[in-house]
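Page 47, continued from p. 46.
Same chain as before, 332 aa.
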Amino acid sequence: MKLNKIGALAAVSILAFAACSSSGGSAAPSGSAAASGAAGSNKATVCKDKVGKSTTEIHVYSSLPLQGTSLPQSTSIVNAVKETLDGQKIGNFTIKYISLDDASAAKGGDWDPTVEQANANTAANDPDAMVYIGTYNSGAAKLSIPILNGACLVMISPANTYPGLTKAVDGVTTPGEPESYYPNGYRNYSRNVNTDDAQGAASSEWAFSLGKKTAFVIDDGQTYGQGIGRAWAQHFGKIGGKVVSANAGSESYDPKSTDYSALAQKIKASGADVVFVGAITGQGTPKLWKDIVAGNPGITMFGPDGVNEKTWATGAGSAAKGTYLTFGGVDI
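Result:
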């Protein structure tokens, strides 16, 4: 998922609006009420008196996986943000951009909950921080939004698609979402991509339009994968399809497994004519595709934007051929 110039320029607009709203123009407001309001708040008075220490700098952070399978996408985002924001003048202030990595070798190059929380706390403890760009993974956002909300910092994601971060969707999100992520009672988080209830529905309708009537839906057990898997299964059932995975919903697989032949045989026995996999590349999906296709010759495979990338296609090899992939964007 790539951050476009519009998304980056939106961040500049928020910064300019907030900097010009600084009391007396003497210091950069750190996640000021104006900035928070620009991200969708109408209860941000709790942050109205918060100002930064510097009279010359505004700090913008990003937190993205800068290793592993997500590196190409994250690098493009970092480069776009750096080009658009770093060194820009906003009133009397200069923007300083700080890029943080939320992945770790311990997680095989994927995002790490401990690292992401540390990144969010780093920004929250910087009095001159105003904006936090990220995260790439929706599960990471669930951890950082409350930290940044408590510190009155604006958070903008170019990639999070799990609906529960901003809205409740029956059958897809968890009870208490999204309110549980905003302890200060205002919204400091926004994103410039569509959510998975829309992507999942569109993908399932695509499968149905191809004449597929019986679906097996699986996910990697993460926030993103489960969310889009549930959305896909739910909508497929609503439009007349039959979902034969557990509880007529999305069934989680073990991303650490080295052999999915048993799962492939379970899919074959179910009579499914289409399989949807809600997952990201780093969650064992190349091997998963190989084993499912090997055990089910001719089966139609669907995947979301989490695997819509070169790294996944290269890893899955010939098993990727013929897969239907979606992306939560707009027609151009």
